[in-house]
Amino acid sequence: MLIFEKGQPGRFATSQAPKASGKCDDIPAELMRKTPAAMPEVSELQTVRHFTNLSRKNFSIDTQFYPLGSCTMKYNPRGAHKAASLPGFLARHPLAPESHSQGYLACVYELQEILKDVTGMAGVSLCPMAGAQGEFAGVAMIRAYHEARQDHARSEIIVPEAAHGTNPATAVMCGYKVVEIPVRTDGDVDLEALQQAAGPQTAGIMMTNPSTCGVFERQIEDISRIVHEAGGLLYYDGANLNAILGKVRPGDMGFDVLHMNLHKTFATPHGGGGPGSGPVAVGERLLPYLPTPIVGRSDAENGSRYHWLDQDDLPDSIGRLSAFMGNAGIILRAYVYAILLGREGLHRVGEFSTLNANYMATLMQQAGFQLAYPERRATHEFIVTLNKQAKELGVTAMDFAKRLLDFGYHAPTTYFPLLVPECFLIEPTETESIDELEGFVEAMIAIQKEAESSAELVKGAPYSQPVKRLDDVKAARELDVAYQRS
Amino acid sequence: MSNIPGELKYLSSHEWARLESDGETVTIGITDHAQDLLGDVVFVELPEVDAEIAAGDEAGVVESVKAASDVFSPVSGIVIAVNEDLEDAPELVNSDPYDDGWFFKVKASDLDELGSLLDAEAYAEVCQDEDH
Hints:
A: 13 strands; B: 132 residues; CATH 2.40.50.100; six-stranded antiparallel sheet
Protein backbone atom coordinates (compact mmCIF):
# COMPACT_ATOMS: atom_id res chain seq x y z
CA MET A 1 0.00 0.00 0.00
CA LEU A 2 1.34 3.42 -0.94
CA ILE A 3 1.70 6.02 1.77
CA PHE A 4 -0.72 8.18 -0.25
CA GLU A 5 -3.41 5.56 0.31
CA LYS A 6 -3.00 5.72 4.09
CA GLY A 7 -4.20 8.37 6.51
CA GLN A 8 -7.04 10.87 6.28
CA PRO A 9 -7.51 14.34 4.79
CA GLY A 10 -6.06 16.98 7.08
CA ARG A 11 -3.94 14.62 9.14
CA PHE A 12 -0.32 15.67 9.54
CA ALA A 13 2.70 15.28 11.78
CA THR A 14 3.62 18.37 13.79
CA SER A 15 7.28 17.39 13.67
CA GLN A 16 7.21 17.70 9.89
CA ALA A 17 5.28 20.96 9.69
CA PRO A 18 7.18 24.00 8.34
CA LYS A 19 8.69 26.09 11.12
CA ALA A 20 8.42 29.46 9.38
CA SER A 21 5.35 30.90 7.72
CA GLY A 22 6.99 30.45 4.33
CA LYS A 23 5.42 33.70 3.17
CA CYS A 24 6.90 34.96 -0.08
CA ASP A 25 5.13 37.96 -1.57
CA ASP A 26 7.27 38.34 -4.64
CA ILE A 27 6.39 35.11 -6.49
CA PRO A 28 4.63 36.06 -9.76
CA ALA A 29 0.99 34.99 -9.79
CA GLU A 30 1.38 32.86 -12.94
CA LEU A 31 3.98 30.74 -11.17
CA MET A 32 1.78 29.99 -8.16
CA ARG A 33 0.15 26.57 -8.19
CA LYS A 34 -3.61 26.47 -8.48
CA THR A 35 -4.21 23.21 -6.63
CA PRO A 36 -2.48 22.10 -3.45
CA ALA A 37 0.36 19.59 -3.85
CA ALA A 38 -0.72 15.98 -3.35
CA MET A 39 0.99 15.05 -0.11
CA PRO A 40 0.52 11.98 2.07
CA GLU A 41 -1.69 12.93 5.02
CA VAL A 42 -0.41 10.66 7.76
CA SER A 43 0.65 10.87 11.38
CA GLU A 44 4.25 10.58 12.52
CA LEU A 45 3.72 7.02 13.76
CA GLN A 46 2.05 5.98 10.52
CA THR A 47 5.05 7.36 8.64
CA VAL A 48 7.52 5.52 10.85
CA ARG A 49 5.62 2.25 10.44
CA HIS A 50 5.24 2.71 6.71
CA PHE A 51 8.97 3.10 6.06
CA THR A 52 10.03 0.56 8.67
CA ASN A 53 7.78 -2.05 7.05
CA LEU A 54 9.09 -1.16 3.60
CA SER A 55 12.68 -1.56 4.79
CA ARG A 56 11.85 -5.02 6.18
CA LYS A 57 10.79 -6.10 2.70
CA ASN A 58 14.17 -5.08 1.34
CA PHE A 59 16.47 -7.83 0.10
CA SER A 60 19.85 -6.26 0.78
CA ILE A 61 23.48 -6.90 1.56
CA ASP A 62 22.73 -5.97 5.18
CA THR A 63 20.32 -8.90 5.45
CA GLN A 64 21.33 -11.53 2.87
CA PHE A 65 24.10 -12.92 0.67
CA TYR A 66 23.88 -11.01 -2.58
CA PRO A 67 26.13 -12.63 -5.21
CA LEU A 68 25.09 -10.39 -8.11
CA GLY A 69 27.78 -10.95 -10.74
CA SER A 70 29.44 -7.90 -12.29
CA CYS A 71 27.98 -5.73 -9.51
CA THR A 72 30.34 -6.43 -6.57
CA MET A 73 27.72 -6.26 -3.82
CA LYS A 74 30.15 -6.24 -0.92
CA TYR A 75 29.70 -5.04 2.60
CA ASN A 76 29.93 -1.28 3.16
CA PRO A 77 31.87 -0.90 6.40
CA ARG A 78 30.01 1.15 8.99
CA GLY A 79 33.29 2.81 9.95
CA ALA A 80 33.48 4.54 6.58
CA HIS A 81 29.96 5.83 7.04
CA LYS A 82 30.75 7.04 10.55
CA ALA A 83 33.86 8.96 9.51
CA ALA A 84 32.19 10.49 6.44
CA SER A 85 29.35 11.66 8.67
CA LEU A 86 31.53 13.82 10.92
CA PRO A 87 29.86 17.23 11.25
CA GLY A 88 32.82 19.01 9.64
CA PHE A 89 32.22 17.04 6.48
CA LEU A 90 28.42 16.96 6.59
CA ALA A 91 28.00 20.68 7.16
CA ARG A 92 30.63 21.88 4.70
CA HIS A 93 29.02 24.00 2.00
CA PRO A 94 30.26 23.11 -1.51
CA LEU A 95 31.03 26.79 -2.11
CA ALA A 96 32.97 27.17 1.16
CA PRO A 97 36.34 28.85 0.56
CA GLU A 98 39.46 26.70 0.29
CA SER A 99 40.79 28.10 3.54
CA HIS A 100 37.77 26.62 5.35
CA SER A 101 37.91 23.29 3.51
CA GLN A 102 41.49 22.12 3.97
CA GLY A 103 40.48 18.93 5.78
CA TYR A 104 38.05 17.87 3.08
CA LEU A 105 40.39 18.86 0.26
CA ALA A 106 43.24 16.90 1.88
CA CYS A 107 41.08 13.74 1.92
CA VAL A 108 40.10 14.23 -1.71
CA TYR A 109 43.71 14.83 -2.74
CA GLU A 110 44.88 11.72 -0.93
CA LEU A 111 42.15 9.61 -2.54
CA GLN A 112 43.27 10.87 -5.96
CA GLU A 113 46.81 9.74 -5.09
CA ILE A 114 45.65 6.34 -3.81
CA LEU A 115 43.62 5.70 -6.97
CA LYS A 116 46.60 6.69 -9.16
CA ASP A 117 48.71 4.20 -7.27
CA VAL A 118 46.12 1.41 -7.39
CA THR A 119 45.51 1.79 -11.14
CA GLY A 120 49.05 2.65 -12.27
CA MET A 121 47.92 5.84 -13.99
CA ALA A 122 49.32 9.39 -14.10
CA GLY A 123 46.27 11.40 -13.09
CA VAL A 124 42.81 11.07 -11.55
CA SER A 125 39.64 13.11 -11.57
CA LEU A 126 36.92 12.28 -9.05
CA CYS A 127 34.27 14.30 -10.91
CA PRO A 128 32.09 11.64 -12.57
CA MET A 129 28.96 11.09 -10.50
CA ALA A 130 28.76 7.35 -11.31
CA GLY A 131 30.00 4.69 -13.70
CA ALA A 132 28.03 5.84 -16.75
CA GLN A 133 29.37 9.38 -16.45
CA GLY A 134 32.86 7.99 -15.87
CA GLU A 135 32.64 6.04 -19.11
CA PHE A 136 31.37 9.11 -20.91
CA ALA A 137 34.21 11.25 -19.54
CA GLY A 138 36.76 8.60 -20.50
CA VAL A 139 35.67 8.32 -24.12
CA ALA A 140 35.20 12.10 -24.34
CA MET A 141 38.89 12.40 -23.40
CA ILE A 142 39.85 9.90 -26.13
CA ARG A 143 37.92 12.07 -28.55
CA ALA A 144 39.57 15.27 -27.28
CA TYR A 145 42.99 13.65 -27.70
CA HIS A 146 42.44 12.68 -31.34
CA GLU A 147 40.89 16.05 -32.16
CA ALA A 148 43.77 17.96 -30.58
CA ARG A 149 46.07 16.05 -32.94
CA GLN A 150 43.88 16.92 -35.94
CA ASP A 151 43.30 13.18 -36.33
CA HIS A 152 39.71 13.48 -37.46
CA ALA A 153 39.34 10.22 -39.40
CA ARG A 154 39.02 8.10 -36.26
CA SER A 155 35.34 7.27 -36.07
CA GLU A 156 35.15 3.78 -34.55
CA ILE A 157 35.39 2.22 -31.13
CA ILE A 158 36.07 -1.51 -30.95
CA VAL A 159 34.10 -3.40 -28.30
CA PRO A 160 34.68 -7.12 -27.67
CA GLU A 161 31.61 -9.25 -26.96
CA ALA A 162 32.89 -9.83 -23.43
CA ALA A 163 33.07 -6.11 -22.63
CA HIS A 164 30.73 -4.56 -20.12
CA GLY A 165 27.20 -4.12 -21.45
CA THR A 166 27.22 -0.34 -21.16
CA ASN A 167 30.34 0.23 -23.30
CA PRO A 168 28.65 0.30 -26.74
CA ALA A 169 26.13 2.85 -25.43
CA THR A 170 28.95 5.08 -24.20
CA ALA A 171 30.77 4.93 -27.54
CA VAL A 172 27.57 5.92 -29.37
CA MET A 173 26.90 8.76 -26.88
CA CYS A 174 30.34 10.13 -27.73
CA GLY A 175 29.58 10.01 -31.45
CA TYR A 176 31.46 6.86 -32.38
CA LYS A 177 30.44 3.85 -34.43
CA VAL A 178 30.68 0.58 -32.50
CA VAL A 179 32.58 -2.32 -34.05
CA GLU A 180 31.94 -5.53 -32.14
CA ILE A 181 34.52 -8.31 -32.19
CA PRO A 182 33.94 -11.89 -30.98
CA VAL A 183 35.56 -13.80 -28.14
CA ARG A 184 36.79 -17.34 -28.58
CA THR A 185 35.24 -20.33 -26.82
CA ASP A 186 37.86 -20.06 -24.06
CA GLY A 187 36.63 -16.56 -23.23
CA ASP A 188 39.59 -14.59 -24.64
CA VAL A 189 39.35 -12.03 -27.44
CA ASP A 190 39.65 -13.29 -31.04
CA LEU A 191 42.95 -11.60 -31.95
CA GLU A 192 42.54 -12.13 -35.69
CA ALA A 193 39.20 -10.33 -35.62
CA LEU A 194 40.83 -7.51 -33.62
CA GLN A 195 43.67 -7.26 -36.14
CA GLN A 196 41.12 -6.93 -38.94
CA ALA A 197 38.99 -4.39 -37.08
CA ALA A 198 41.88 -2.12 -36.06
CA GLY A 199 43.01 0.57 -38.50
CA PRO A 200 43.34 4.30 -39.18
CA GLN A 201 39.60 4.66 -38.41
CA THR A 202 40.01 3.22 -34.89
CA ALA A 203 39.66 5.73 -32.06
CA GLY A 204 40.08 3.09 -29.38
CA ILE A 205 38.92 -0.12 -27.79
CA MET A 206 36.72 -0.46 -24.70
CA MET A 207 37.17 -3.56 -22.61
CA THR A 208 37.10 -4.87 -19.11
CA ASN A 209 39.68 -7.23 -17.70
CA PRO A 210 38.73 -9.63 -16.17
CA SER A 211 35.99 -9.73 -18.79
CA THR A 212 32.31 -10.39 -18.20
CA CYS A 213 33.11 -14.04 -18.97
CA GLY A 214 34.68 -14.10 -15.50
CA VAL A 215 38.15 -14.82 -16.86
CA PHE A 216 41.34 -12.78 -17.13
CA GLU A 217 42.15 -11.75 -20.71
CA ARG A 218 45.57 -13.36 -21.15
CA GLN A 219 46.45 -11.61 -24.41
CA ILE A 220 46.05 -8.11 -23.04
CA GLU A 221 49.60 -7.12 -24.03
CA ASP A 222 48.98 -8.22 -27.63
CA ILE A 223 45.67 -6.34 -27.67
CA SER A 224 47.41 -3.24 -26.35
CA ARG A 225 50.10 -3.50 -29.03
CA ILE A 226 47.62 -4.02 -31.91
CA VAL A 227 45.38 -1.11 -30.90
CA HIS A 228 48.27 1.26 -30.16
CA GLU A 229 50.00 0.41 -33.44
CA ALA A 230 46.77 1.33 -35.21
CA GLY A 231 46.85 4.68 -33.42
CA GLY A 232 43.92 3.96 -31.09
CA LEU A 233 43.73 4.20 -27.31
CA LEU A 234 42.71 1.60 -24.73
CA TYR A 235 39.77 2.20 -22.41
CA TYR A 236 39.44 0.06 -19.28
CA ASP A 237 36.01 -0.39 -17.77
CA GLY A 238 36.59 -0.71 -14.02
CA ALA A 239 33.53 -2.93 -13.53
CA ASN A 240 35.70 -5.87 -12.52
CA LEU A 241 38.56 -4.06 -10.82
CA ASN A 242 37.79 -5.86 -7.57
CA ALA A 243 39.37 -9.05 -8.93
CA ILE A 244 42.80 -7.56 -9.53
CA LEU A 245 43.00 -4.92 -6.80
CA GLY A 246 46.58 -4.69 -5.58
CA LYS A 247 47.69 -7.44 -8.00
CA VAL A 248 47.63 -6.09 -11.55
CA ARG A 249 47.29 -2.47 -12.61
CA PRO A 250 45.41 -1.34 -15.74
CA GLY A 251 48.21 1.17 -16.39
CA ASP A 252 50.73 -1.67 -16.52
CA MET A 253 48.51 -3.61 -18.95
CA GLY A 254 48.73 -0.71 -21.41
CA PHE A 255 45.44 1.07 -20.80
CA ASP A 256 45.33 4.82 -21.45
CA VAL A 257 42.16 5.64 -19.54
CA LEU A 258 39.77 3.93 -17.16
CA HIS A 259 36.90 4.58 -14.85
CA MET A 260 36.38 2.98 -11.47
CA ASN A 261 33.14 2.34 -9.65
CA LEU A 262 33.91 3.37 -6.09
CA HIS A 263 30.47 2.04 -5.14
CA LYS A 264 31.70 -1.38 -6.20
CA THR A 265 35.41 -1.72 -5.58
CA PHE A 266 35.73 0.78 -2.73
CA ALA A 267 32.64 -0.44 -0.89
CA THR A 268 30.54 2.69 -0.87
CA PRO A 269 26.75 2.24 -0.68
CA HIS A 270 25.41 0.61 -3.76
CA GLY A 271 22.16 -0.04 -5.53
CA GLY A 272 18.75 1.52 -5.33
CA GLY A 273 19.81 4.36 -7.59
CA GLY A 274 21.61 6.12 -4.76
CA PRO A 275 24.60 8.38 -5.25
CA GLY A 276 27.51 6.71 -7.01
CA SER A 277 31.05 7.65 -7.86
CA GLY A 278 32.89 6.85 -11.09
CA PRO A 279 36.33 8.52 -11.06
CA VAL A 280 38.46 8.48 -14.20
CA ALA A 281 42.21 7.81 -14.29
CA VAL A 282 44.46 8.53 -17.27
CA GLY A 283 47.97 7.97 -18.54
CA GLU A 284 50.32 10.83 -19.52
CA ARG A 285 48.76 11.35 -22.95
CA LEU A 286 45.32 12.18 -21.63
CA LEU A 287 46.37 14.23 -18.57
CA PRO A 288 45.46 17.62 -20.09
CA TYR A 289 41.87 16.51 -20.75
CA LEU A 290 40.78 15.35 -17.27
CA PRO A 291 37.41 16.77 -16.20
CA THR A 292 37.53 19.55 -13.61
CA PRO A 293 37.72 20.39 -10.80
CA ILE A 294 40.65 18.41 -9.43
CA VAL A 295 42.34 19.03 -6.09
CA GLY A 296 45.98 20.12 -6.20
CA ARG A 297 48.55 20.51 -3.45
CA SER A 298 51.29 23.10 -3.00
CA ASP A 299 53.97 22.52 -0.41
CA ALA A 300 55.39 25.40 1.58
CA GLU A 301 57.58 25.63 4.68
CA ASN A 302 54.61 25.99 6.97
CA GLY A 303 52.86 22.90 5.55
CA SER A 304 50.82 21.83 2.57
CA ARG A 305 47.90 23.76 1.16
CA TYR A 306 45.18 22.18 -0.95
CA HIS A 307 43.34 24.03 -3.67
CA TRP A 308 40.92 23.51 -6.56
CA LEU A 309 42.35 23.18 -10.06
CA ASP A 310 39.82 24.42 -12.58
CA GLN A 311 39.47 25.33 -16.26
CA ASP A 312 42.06 28.13 -15.84
CA ASP A 313 44.63 25.60 -14.66
CA LEU A 314 43.66 22.91 -17.18
CA PRO A 315 42.58 24.81 -20.32
CA ASP A 316 42.30 21.63 -22.44
CA SER A 317 40.03 19.86 -19.91
CA ILE A 318 36.80 18.34 -21.26
CA GLY A 319 35.21 20.58 -18.60
CA ARG A 320 32.77 20.12 -15.76
CA LEU A 321 30.39 17.19 -15.52
CA SER A 322 28.21 18.62 -12.77
CA ALA A 323 27.93 21.73 -10.61
CA PHE A 324 30.38 20.43 -7.99
CA MET A 325 32.97 17.67 -7.79
CA GLY A 326 31.19 14.29 -7.62
CA ASN A 327 29.20 13.08 -4.62
CA ALA A 328 31.24 14.39 -1.70
CA GLY A 329 29.94 11.89 0.86
CA ILE A 330 30.63 8.90 -1.37
CA ILE A 331 34.15 10.09 -2.18
CA LEU A 332 34.83 10.41 1.56
CA ARG A 333 33.53 6.89 2.25
CA ALA A 334 35.82 5.48 -0.43
CA TYR A 335 38.75 7.39 1.06
CA VAL A 336 38.07 6.04 4.55
CA TYR A 337 37.66 2.52 3.14
CA ALA A 338 41.06 2.73 1.43
CA ILE A 339 42.70 4.09 4.59
CA LEU A 340 41.06 1.44 6.80
CA LEU A 341 42.42 -1.36 4.59
CA GLY A 342 45.75 0.16 3.73
CA ARG A 343 47.99 -1.16 0.99
CA GLU A 344 48.11 -4.69 2.40
CA GLY A 345 44.37 -4.80 2.94
CA LEU A 346 43.65 -3.72 -0.62
CA HIS A 347 45.86 -6.58 -1.85
CA ARG A 348 43.75 -9.00 0.16
CA VAL A 349 40.56 -7.71 -1.51
CA GLY A 350 41.69 -9.10 -4.87
CA GLU A 351 43.02 -12.31 -3.30
CA PHE A 352 39.95 -13.17 -1.25
CA SER A 353 37.37 -12.17 -3.85
CA THR A 354 39.14 -14.50 -6.30
CA LEU A 355 39.59 -17.27 -3.76
CA ASN A 356 35.91 -17.13 -2.79
CA ALA A 357 34.74 -17.29 -6.40
CA ASN A 358 37.04 -20.21 -7.23
CA TYR A 359 36.00 -22.08 -4.09
CA MET A 360 32.33 -21.71 -5.00
CA ALA A 361 32.95 -22.60 -8.64
CA THR A 362 34.73 -25.78 -7.60
CA LEU A 363 31.96 -26.78 -5.17
CA MET A 364 29.33 -26.21 -7.84
CA GLN A 365 31.27 -28.19 -10.41
CA GLN A 366 31.66 -31.06 -7.95
CA ALA A 367 27.90 -30.97 -7.38
CA GLY A 368 27.33 -31.51 -11.10
CA PHE A 369 26.67 -27.97 -12.31
CA GLN A 370 28.11 -26.97 -15.67
CA LEU A 371 30.66 -24.12 -15.64
CA ALA A 372 30.74 -22.01 -18.83
CA TYR A 373 34.55 -21.97 -18.90
CA PRO A 374 35.53 -25.09 -16.96
CA GLU A 375 39.10 -25.09 -18.25
CA ARG A 376 39.73 -21.55 -17.00
CA ARG A 377 40.46 -20.34 -13.50
CA ALA A 378 37.70 -18.01 -12.36
CA THR A 379 38.46 -14.45 -11.37
CA HIS A 380 36.24 -12.73 -8.79
CA GLU A 381 33.16 -14.17 -10.53
CA PHE A 382 32.24 -17.21 -12.57
CA ILE A 383 29.51 -18.41 -14.90
CA VAL A 384 27.29 -21.44 -14.48
CA THR A 385 25.06 -22.44 -17.40
CA LEU A 386 21.75 -24.12 -16.62
CA ASN A 387 21.10 -24.90 -20.29
CA LYS A 388 20.89 -28.64 -19.60
CA GLN A 389 18.30 -28.13 -16.84
CA ALA A 390 16.26 -25.85 -19.12
CA LYS A 391 16.32 -28.36 -21.98
CA GLU A 392 15.82 -31.58 -20.03
CA LEU A 393 13.70 -30.50 -17.07
CA GLY A 394 12.09 -27.34 -18.40
CA VAL A 395 13.47 -25.47 -15.40
CA THR A 396 15.26 -22.30 -16.49
CA ALA A 397 17.89 -20.08 -14.93
CA MET A 398 15.09 -17.66 -14.06
CA ASP A 399 13.24 -20.43 -12.17
CA PHE A 400 16.38 -21.29 -10.18
CA ALA A 401 16.90 -17.59 -9.48
CA LYS A 402 13.39 -17.13 -8.11
CA ARG A 403 13.61 -20.28 -5.98
CA LEU A 404 16.89 -19.07 -4.45
CA LEU A 405 14.93 -16.22 -2.86
CA ASP A 406 12.95 -18.77 -0.84
CA PHE A 407 16.24 -20.17 0.44
CA GLY A 408 17.23 -16.69 1.64
CA TYR A 409 19.74 -15.90 -1.12
CA HIS A 410 19.58 -13.05 -3.57
CA ALA A 411 19.78 -14.44 -7.09
CA PRO A 412 23.02 -13.99 -9.00
CA THR A 413 22.99 -12.01 -12.25
CA THR A 414 20.90 -13.98 -14.75
CA TYR A 415 21.08 -14.15 -18.55
CA PHE A 416 24.26 -12.04 -18.66
CA PRO A 417 26.65 -12.18 -20.43
CA LEU A 418 24.41 -12.77 -23.41
CA LEU A 419 26.81 -15.16 -25.10
CA VAL A 420 26.23 -17.92 -22.53
CA PRO A 421 22.69 -19.42 -22.60
CA GLU A 422 20.67 -19.82 -19.37
CA CYS A 423 23.50 -18.48 -17.27
CA PHE A 424 24.19 -17.34 -13.75
CA LEU A 425 27.02 -14.87 -13.24
CA ILE A 426 28.02 -15.40 -9.61
CA GLU A 427 30.20 -12.95 -7.67
CA PRO A 428 30.49 -13.71 -3.95
CA THR A 429 32.98 -10.87 -3.12
CA GLU A 430 35.64 -11.03 -0.42
CA THR A 431 33.33 -10.02 2.42
CA GLU A 432 31.42 -13.33 2.67
CA SER A 433 32.34 -16.13 5.04
CA ILE A 434 32.87 -19.72 3.96
CA ASP A 435 29.55 -20.63 5.63
CA GLU A 436 27.62 -18.35 3.29
CA LEU A 437 29.46 -19.64 0.22
CA GLU A 438 28.69 -23.24 1.16
CA GLY A 439 25.11 -22.38 2.11
CA PHE A 440 24.46 -20.94 -1.33
CA VAL A 441 25.84 -24.04 -3.07
CA GLU A 442 23.74 -26.27 -0.79
CA ALA A 443 20.66 -24.28 -1.79
CA MET A 444 21.50 -24.76 -5.47
CA ILE A 445 21.86 -28.52 -4.91
CA ALA A 446 18.51 -28.62 -3.12
CA ILE A 447 16.83 -26.72 -5.95
CA GLN A 448 18.39 -29.09 -8.49
CA LYS A 449 16.79 -32.00 -6.62
CA GLU A 450 13.44 -30.20 -6.60
CA ALA A 451 13.77 -29.50 -10.32
CA GLU A 452 14.27 -33.22 -10.94
CA SER A 453 11.40 -34.43 -8.75
CA SER A 454 8.87 -31.59 -8.84
CA ALA A 455 9.68 -29.02 -11.51
CA GLU A 456 6.40 -27.15 -10.98
CA LEU A 457 7.44 -26.28 -7.44
CA VAL A 458 10.54 -24.49 -8.73
CA LYS A 459 8.67 -22.87 -11.60
CA GLY A 460 6.15 -21.33 -9.21
CA ALA A 461 8.72 -19.75 -6.85
CA PRO A 462 9.08 -17.58 -4.89
CA TYR A 463 6.62 -18.46 -2.12
CA SER A 464 8.12 -16.68 0.90
CA GLN A 465 8.48 -13.12 -0.40
CA PRO A 466 6.19 -10.06 -0.09
CA VAL A 467 5.27 -10.56 -3.75
CA LYS A 468 4.89 -13.77 -5.73
CA ARG A 469 6.32 -14.42 -9.19
CA LEU A 470 5.91 -11.22 -11.17
CA ASP A 471 4.66 -11.17 -14.73
CA ASP A 472 7.64 -9.43 -16.30
CA VAL A 473 6.15 -9.73 -19.79
CA LYS A 474 2.97 -7.91 -18.79
CA ALA A 475 5.03 -5.33 -16.90
CA ALA A 476 7.12 -4.59 -19.99
CA ARG A 477 4.26 -4.64 -22.47
CA GLU A 478 1.82 -2.61 -20.39
CA LEU A 479 4.21 -0.16 -18.81
CA ASP A 480 2.50 1.84 -16.07
CA VAL A 481 4.95 3.81 -13.96
CA ALA A 482 3.17 7.04 -13.04
CA TYR A 483 1.07 6.96 -9.85
CA GLN A 484 -2.19 8.79 -10.15
CA ARG A 485 -4.18 9.59 -7.09
CA SER A 486 -7.67 8.17 -7.38
CA MET B 1 14.02 -28.61 -32.99
CA SER B 2 12.80 -25.26 -34.21
CA ASN B 3 10.83 -24.65 -37.39
CA ILE B 4 13.03 -23.73 -40.39
CA PRO B 5 10.90 -23.44 -43.56
CA GLY B 6 12.70 -24.81 -46.63
CA GLU B 7 11.64 -22.02 -48.99
CA LEU B 8 13.22 -19.15 -47.02
CA LYS B 9 16.75 -17.72 -46.97
CA TYR B 10 18.61 -16.94 -43.74
CA LEU B 11 21.36 -14.94 -42.07
CA SER B 12 23.46 -16.57 -39.38
CA SER B 13 22.26 -13.71 -37.12
CA HIS B 14 18.79 -15.35 -37.30
CA GLU B 15 16.88 -13.17 -39.79
CA TRP B 16 14.84 -14.79 -42.58
CA ALA B 17 14.12 -13.35 -46.04
CA ARG B 18 11.31 -14.34 -48.42
CA LEU B 19 11.10 -13.22 -52.04
CA GLU B 20 7.44 -12.44 -52.72
CA SER B 21 5.62 -13.43 -55.91
CA ASP B 22 6.09 -9.99 -57.51
CA GLY B 23 9.75 -10.91 -57.89
CA GLU B 24 11.18 -7.79 -56.20
CA THR B 25 9.70 -7.47 -52.72
CA VAL B 26 11.58 -9.24 -49.95
CA THR B 27 9.86 -9.77 -46.59
CA ILE B 28 12.12 -9.98 -43.53
CA GLY B 29 11.63 -11.26 -40.01
CA ILE B 30 13.43 -13.24 -37.31
CA THR B 31 13.43 -17.02 -37.10
CA ASP B 32 11.59 -19.38 -34.80
CA HIS B 33 14.96 -20.28 -33.25
CA ALA B 34 15.65 -16.58 -32.57
CA GLN B 35 12.29 -15.95 -30.90
CA ASP B 36 12.79 -19.07 -28.80
CA LEU B 37 16.20 -17.86 -27.62
CA LEU B 38 14.91 -14.36 -26.89
CA GLY B 39 11.83 -15.46 -24.98
CA ASP B 40 8.78 -13.20 -24.70
CA VAL B 41 9.24 -10.26 -27.06
CA VAL B 42 8.10 -7.00 -25.48
CA PHE B 43 9.17 -4.35 -28.01
CA VAL B 44 10.14 -4.11 -31.67
CA GLU B 45 11.78 -1.09 -33.31
CA LEU B 46 11.37 -1.01 -37.09
CA PRO B 47 13.03 1.02 -39.85
CA GLU B 48 11.36 4.05 -41.44
CA VAL B 49 9.34 3.43 -44.58
CA ASP B 50 11.22 4.83 -47.63
CA ALA B 51 14.56 4.41 -45.87
CA GLU B 52 17.37 3.07 -48.00
CA ILE B 53 19.24 0.20 -46.43
CA ALA B 54 22.19 -1.95 -47.41
CA ALA B 55 22.56 -5.67 -46.81
CA GLY B 56 24.07 -6.19 -43.37
CA ASP B 57 22.83 -2.85 -41.99
CA GLU B 58 21.11 -2.65 -38.64
CA ALA B 59 17.48 -2.18 -39.60
CA GLY B 60 15.72 -2.57 -36.27
CA VAL B 61 15.82 -3.81 -32.70
CA VAL B 62 13.93 -6.61 -31.02
CA GLU B 63 13.67 -6.54 -27.25
CA SER B 64 12.56 -9.37 -24.98
CA VAL B 65 12.41 -9.77 -21.22
CA LYS B 66 15.91 -11.25 -21.44
CA ALA B 67 17.77 -9.20 -24.04
CA ALA B 68 17.77 -6.58 -26.77
CA SER B 69 19.10 -7.57 -30.17
CA ASP B 70 19.80 -5.73 -33.43
CA VAL B 71 17.94 -6.92 -36.49
CA PHE B 72 20.02 -6.86 -39.69
CA SER B 73 18.73 -6.58 -43.22
CA PRO B 74 19.66 -9.55 -45.42
CA VAL B 75 19.25 -7.49 -48.62
CA SER B 76 19.77 -3.96 -49.94
CA GLY B 77 16.95 -1.75 -51.13
CA ILE B 78 14.20 0.63 -50.07
CA VAL B 79 11.93 -0.15 -47.13
CA ILE B 80 8.39 -0.18 -48.54
CA ALA B 81 6.40 -1.42 -45.53
CA VAL B 82 6.78 -2.20 -41.84
CA ASN B 83 4.59 -4.44 -39.71
CA GLU B 84 2.72 -1.89 -37.62
CA ASP B 85 0.84 -4.63 -35.76
CA LEU B 86 4.03 -5.37 -33.84
CA GLU B 87 3.76 -2.03 -32.05
CA ASP B 88 0.74 -3.15 -30.03
CA ALA B 89 1.27 -6.90 -30.31
CA PRO B 90 4.99 -7.73 -30.20
CA GLU B 91 3.99 -11.23 -29.06
CA LEU B 92 3.20 -12.00 -32.73
CA VAL B 93 6.97 -12.47 -33.15
CA ASN B 94 6.75 -15.37 -30.68
CA SER B 95 3.51 -16.90 -31.85
CA ASP B 96 3.96 -16.62 -35.62
CA PRO B 97 7.54 -15.63 -36.55
CA TYR B 98 7.24 -16.45 -40.26
CA ASP B 99 3.83 -14.98 -40.99
CA ASP B 100 2.00 -12.43 -38.80
CA GLY B 101 5.29 -11.70 -36.99
CA TRP B 102 7.15 -10.31 -40.06
CA PHE B 103 9.21 -7.13 -39.49
CA PHE B 104 9.54 -5.16 -42.73
CA LYS B 105 9.46 -5.41 -46.53
CA VAL B 106 12.20 -4.19 -48.83
CA LYS B 107 12.06 -3.46 -52.55
CA ALA B 108 15.32 -5.23 -53.31
CA SER B 109 17.88 -3.45 -55.49
CA ASP B 110 20.01 -6.53 -56.10
CA LEU B 111 18.29 -9.90 -56.11
CA ASP B 112 21.65 -11.66 -56.45
CA GLU B 113 22.17 -10.91 -52.77
CA LEU B 114 19.57 -13.56 -51.98
CA GLY B 115 21.87 -16.15 -53.51
CA SER B 116 24.59 -15.45 -50.97
CA LEU B 117 22.27 -16.05 -47.98
CA LEU B 118 22.05 -19.37 -46.12
CA ASP B 119 19.53 -21.96 -47.24
CA ALA B 120 17.43 -23.84 -44.68
CA GLU B 121 19.91 -26.68 -44.37
CA ALA B 122 22.91 -24.40 -43.78
CA TYR B 123 20.94 -22.32 -41.28
CA ALA B 124 19.89 -25.46 -39.39
CA GLU B 125 23.58 -26.24 -38.96
CA VAL B 126 24.20 -22.77 -37.52
CA CYS B 127 21.46 -23.40 -34.93
CA GLN B 128 22.87 -26.85 -34.19
CA ASP B 129 26.37 -25.42 -33.58
CA GLU B 130 24.99 -22.81 -31.20
CA ASP B 131 23.31 -25.50 -29.14
CA HIS B 132 26.65 -27.33 -28.78
